[in-house]
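[Q] Does anyone have a clean structure-token version of this?
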Amino acid sequence: MLILIAVIAVALAASATRIILREESLRRERAAVRERIQELEAERERISQELGALASPDVIERLAKEDLNLKRVGEEVVVVVPDEGAGTGREQEPAAGRTLWDWLKSLIGFR
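[A] Here you go.
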């Protein structure tokens, strides 16, 4: 009878230990999930602010000009291309092995 009580006590202790360990694991997991939620909420707020800033007409116009090379009607665009042959007093000629097409593309800024 004493052995039966000892076996039951050990089984209960093992079961209680498993429950305690599982509870601790769930607490850590819940803390990690809460931390991740806070990170995602902060990121959502940052993205929301960025989206609000990007929706302004001035920003839309600037991005259209910079990224899409667009201009307003009647507006003139001036592109300044640095002269690679500066100081020589003559146009740069195509290097050996380059085609005329490559030279023309580099002259107008397409690389």
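[Q] Thanks! Anything notable?
[A] Residues 2-54 form the longest helix (53 residues).
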